[in-house]
Design goal:
Strand order of the largest sheet: 6-4-1-10-11-12-13-14-15
Structural class: alpha/beta
Low-confidence stretches: none
Distance between the termini: 45 Å
Largest sheet: 9 strands, mixed
Radius of gyration: 29 Å
Number of helices: 17
Shape: elongated
Number of strands: 20
Strand content: 15-25%
Oligomer: single chain
Length: 490
């Protein structure tokens, strides 16, 4: 069965998320190239520039992640009156899923991070930041704009990079504004003083930030839970989600529930922005009614995908659904399914846009002809289901001496083939009823049939599918092999 079947509907709802993001908006610049020599002027590598990418960073990267999920964002922040600020505005204006309430403070410099990367390795990062505080009148304009839009969103993210936008008074007013409007508030914290986040729905520190906040380094999961519970109790915070890098995440809720999820990433290429992805997915989930426990499962999957990409990357719902399907496939090495289990899996495959194929047979002694038939059948579709005659069905069709192998053994052998994605038994003499329940897009049989002879062919074609006939290996049959075995035994 699918462990994550219940999460797929949550993923499909993410496009309905309406989220306000308030925080330090930056411009992220990645300059990528190759290093072939050392500079003669100083012992430093020379990066031969191949290309550069410019994108929204900081709180803007949270926005990118939400819009990649299909959601819509009201973006609030402060820019300088400079080239970087104008570039941020152009990027925002290009995205129809973003409503901008960005403010300009001419006294400030727009935050910009430039990363120089060679063959996937970071050589240097250059930061441009403003040391001047945000002017009070700019903060007031920002808060007024946020108040005007609070009723258009279902969740609020406060993305703090300590660049001067989310000052203690501004944090207090934003949290109170969201709570008064009954909107969940998700805080990506920078300060060690969690009194600033009093009243937040969810705060998402990493392990190091948690250690700074409590004044010691929690060593175990139990220590992390205890530290989180103390902060929540002292500062009226409903939940904490502690991200733990390769150890996964720990969610601690005020009702005593804690959820620990293991990291899913197979390969880690770049952790830049992974925390932004987690915050974005959690907020989108809360905005669309997903509970915290399910939300953290989805955020964990999304984080595993984004760290396998280069740069401050994003993930899409389709990628999350594929990852969930892969996890289920790994968790269910046995592909032999009941009809109800199969129908759940088919529903997921079809939501992923995968073409489902079906073939059937007794497959009593699997021989090269069967292997070629199934491989050819798999080439006709994205996922191949094999309908397998039960023992009783085989006896009626082939006689009392058959099958040679009982149904469970035959099913296990078929499931071991890479070309087969699912095996389901049927009791009838023909698979017509099963085909009607499965509703495949492709019905596959051997070329020793004609299309009009294929059971269920009419049904599949009436429903917009097709029948495919594939070539067979000559002189291969279970009956012939069984006779040779009997002759040898005699």
């Amino acid at each position: 069965m699918q462990r994550h079947a219940g999460l797929t509907s949550s993923v499909e709802c993410l496009g309905g998320a309406r989220v306000m993001v308030v925080g330090d908006v930056m411009l992220d610049r990645f300059v990528r190239g190759k290093v072939a020599r050392i500079s003669p002027e100083a012992p430093v590598p020379v990066l031969r520039n191949a290309h550069q990418e410019v994108m929204l960073g900081g709180a803007g990267n949270v926005v990118r992640n939400i819009t990649a999920l299909g959601g819509h964002v009201v973006l609030a922040g402060v820019l300088g009156n400079d080239d970087a600020g104008r570039h941020v505005k152009r990027l925002v204006a290009k995205d129809g899923q973003i409503t901008s309430i960005l403010q300009v403070d001419p006294a400030r410099v727009t935050s910009e991070k430039s990363r120089f990367v060679a063959d996937g390795h970071h050589l240097l990062r250059s930061d441009w930041d403003s040391e001047a505080p945000v002017a009070e009148e700019v903060h007031e304009r920002l808060l007024a704009a946020a108040a005007d839009h609070i009723d258009t969103v279902s969740a609020v993210i406060l993305s703090d990079y300590a660049k001067g936008v989310l000052t203690p008074p501004v944090l207090r007013r934003l949290i109170d504004m969201a709570r008064n409007a009954s909107k969940p508030v998700i805080v990506d914290p920078k300060s060690a003083d969690y009194a600033l986040y009093r009243g937040a729905t969810l705060v998402t520190p990493n392990r190091a930030e948690l250690a700074i906040a409590v004044g010691y380094r929690p060593a175990t999961t139990e220590d992390i839970v205890a530290a989180a519970e103390g902060l929540m109790r002292d500062h009226d915070i409903q939940s904490l989600l502690v991200t733990r890098s390769e150890e996964g995440m720990t969610l601690v809720c005020g009702d005593g529930l804690s959820v620990n999820v293991q990291a899913e990433a197979k390969e880690v290429f770049d952790v830049s922005g992974a925390g932004d992805t987690v915050v974005a997915v959690m907020a989108a989930c809360l905005a669309t009614g997903t509970n915290l426990s399910d939300a953290v499962q989805l955020a964990n999957v999304a984080a595993s995908l984004v760290v396998a990409k280069l740069g401050t990357a994003v993930v899409t719902p389709a990628e999350i659904l594929h990852a969930l399907a892969e996890q289920d496939d790994r968790a269910n090495s046995d592909k032999v399914l009941t009809l109800s289990e199969l129908q759940e899996r088919i529903a997921l495959w079809k939501r992923l846009g995968l073409k489902v194929g079906f073939t059937n047979g007794c497959f009593d002694l699997v021989h090269p002809g069967h292997v070629q038939l199934l491989a050819a059948a798999r080439r006709e579709c994205d996922r191949l289901i094999v309908g397998l005659n039960s023992d009783a069905s085989v006896r009626r069709l082939k006689g009392p001496q058959r099958p040679i192998q009982e149904e469970r053994s035959r099913a296990i052998v078929l499931a071991a083939l890479a070309s087969v994605d699912a095996v389901v038994l049927f009791e009838k003499d023909t698979p017509l009823e099963l085909i009607q329940q499965v509703q495949p897009q492709v019905l596959i049989k051997g070329a020793d049939y004609t299309i009009d002879q294929v059971v269920g062919g009419d049904f599949v074609q009436r429903n917009g599918g097709r029948v495919a006939l594939v070539q067979l290996v000559p002189d291969q049959s279970t009956t012939r092999i069984a006779k040779r075995i009997q002759s040898a035994a005699g």
